[in-house]
Amino acid sequence: MNKTIVFGASGQLGQCFKKLVEDGGPDFFIFPGEDEANILDTAALEKQFAAHQPAYAINCAAYTAVDKAEDDAETALKVNKTGVENLARLCSKYDTTLIHISTDFVFKGDVSSPLKEDDIATPISVYGQTKLDGEKVIPVLLDNYFIIRTGWLYSEFANNFVKTMLKLGADRDELKVIADQVGTPTYAIDLAGCIIHIIKSESAAYGTYHYSNEGVASWYDFSKAIFELAGNSIQVIPISTSEYKTRAVRPAYSVMDKTKVKQTFGLQIPYWRDSLVICINRLKQQN
Description:
alpha/beta, 6-stranded parallel beta sheet
């Protein structure tokens, strides 16, 4: 049995793992509460590893407040680097394979072709730099790891772009959305399913992988699709990044090349709009 602990289980991706397990997925997952398994609390982490002797540890815990990180770099670095280092050391001690979730924000985003795993990472935000710092500590401490970079995550759970758009769309007649940042909307349920597939494969093809849904969209395209599928006729107005100032700079281009993950694990990845249909329908059922 590939007993697997999920750290950061209360977050969006952690809740997606719980959903898949509840819907008949693998029964070898453990979801400790944050008070039991804070990745900055080495004593608490040690208790989890000693009690469960996990084959896999999935790190969904992260400091993800991109703009806030610009003024709170110390906390972001603690969570995104020191916390990862704590997990990696324990994974090494207990011969546990670490599956660490990283981000498209490790890239500058000044390219025009899909980003590959071996492209040079040059972050342009504190958040992106701390996530890259976290990536770098892993191979120093253990060999058996998977780093999975992703981006534009949404789901029925936690706070995300889809739920924010639906909330704003309920109160407004029009909405301005950035049209010159492109990537791929990624259903976090699909990402969780990919990770479960990797665990079940018991593969030793360790290293860094990219995962997102298929296709390309701007935030404008994404929001238009959300409202269309939700049956909301709100007017969406495209604007440029320069018209919407944020504390942190975002990558203008973060489309990922998924060739490696598809070929290594025999994956078929859904198109982003097809997965968005599923999510919107599930959200409708909740209301």
